[in-house]
Amino acid sequence: MIIERPEYVQALMDARMNGFVKVITGIRRCGKSVLLEQIRDEILEKSPKTRIIYVDLEDKANAHLLRGDALFVYLETELKKRRGAPTAIFLDEVHDAEGWETTVNTIRKRKGADLYITGSNSKMLSGELATYLTGRYVEFQMSPFSYGEYLEATQETHPDDASFMRYLETGGMPFLPQLGFGTPGARQYLEDLFWAILSKDIVRRKEIRDVDLLERIVRFAMTEIGHVFSASSIVRFLKHENRTTTAETILSYLKACEEAFLLTRVKREDLIGKHILSVDEKFYVTDLGLRRAVIGDRRGEDVDQSLENIVFCEMRRRGYEVTVGRVKEKEVDFVCTRNGRRLYLQVAYLMPTAETREREFSALASVPDQYRKVVLSLDTVDFSRDGIEHVHLPDFLLADKEGSLE
């Protein structure tokens, strides 16, 4: 079952034939290839005379196009056959081809060419490509399924807290519905996917030799999602496991995980002094299903962390810049900024006691401005007070992303 992702499709269609290279990035297997197919079908529906060139550079049949100028020669030959006719060119996982930056830059200038490329590494938009394409590309970063897309994939028409907890455990990698969410096959798929990301998008690209050390660092970061930690704290952890390394190595490995879209670093912000704090940042994982496949079933012991992770990913998906806020000794889980406006979010599992509610609400009450402030939890009772809203977390995730959030 193919799940339509109309927001991505519409954004890419809006950018069609504007002379820009459309660059689709995101973690491996998040649906970039399927999106290319959806764009192709949409283009042919609206403009049936458009010619199509589609190259999957992970397909072994196209391995010869990865070497030297082979990809450029192939595209140039195909375009000449079309004699300037409108042609949509789709290059899937293009960064595996030698000299792909110059190929992309040259082909985009050809008459009638409308170019779409995908890649599983954020650094494909830095270095040479950024130099060649200054002001001539637009990036669309894809994510795994949102909660709403997960419900569509599982065909759950009456979502409840039980379906939300299944999403919390399974994550949103788009291929899982074909295997059955929560099945042994799904677990094996996620484990295999993790190792593919580690080996192809991190180890090979960064020429990392100590794979065991990398795996230990990734496991530590995944276990500690939502917690403040530093490279020095990982050094101490590894020392207990009889492994020695440096803070510099740890930081470089974590950076490689960010570039592969496996982890995301979140900066901390002083909401009184209005500046970014330079120490002890947080990390979140792109997909909770991958996390569970890597560190195992935590049996509900870190639900709060997982809930934070889901909210963080959702706000990034909605186009917000997200930081963690600090007001003196109190922490605001997320400071979400978009179009010059802010939304403050506090995330909790359940708030059964007055003490728990006071802790969550007081952090937001201490923020010195009048932007919207919301506490999210799985409680079904509305605890809103003093101008601070309390919203059932699954309902918040299903709200219209363009609705009145700020």
What's the pLDDT, averaged over the residues?
A: 91
Strand numbers in spatial order across the main sheet: 7-6-8-9-10-11-12
Largest sheet: 7 strands, mixed
In terms of DSSP E residues, the strand content is 15-25%
- Shape from CA axes? globular
Q: Helical content, roughly?
A: 40-55%
Q: Unreliable segments (pLDDT under 50, ≥5 consecutive)?
A: none
The total beta strand count reads: 12
SSE series: HEHEHEHEHEHHHHHHHEEHHEEEHEEH
The number of helices is: 16
* Derived structural class: alpha/beta
Topology overview:
Elements: H1 6-14, E1 21-25, H2 32-46, E2 51-56, H3 70-82, E3 87-92, H4 100-107, E4 113-119, H5 127-132, E5 137-141, H6 147-154, H7 161-170, H8 176-179, H9 184-206, H10 211-223, H11 231-240, H12 247-259, E6 263-270, E7 275-285, H13 288-295, H14 303-317, E8 321-327, E9 330-338, E10 341-347, H15 354-365, E11 372-377, E12 389-392, H16 393-398
Parallel strand pairs: 1-4, 1-5, 2-3, 3-4, 6-8, 10-11, 11-12
Antiparallel strand pairs: 6-7, 8-9, 9-10
Helix pairs in contact: 1-2, 3-4, 7-13, 9-12, 9-13, 10-12, 11-12
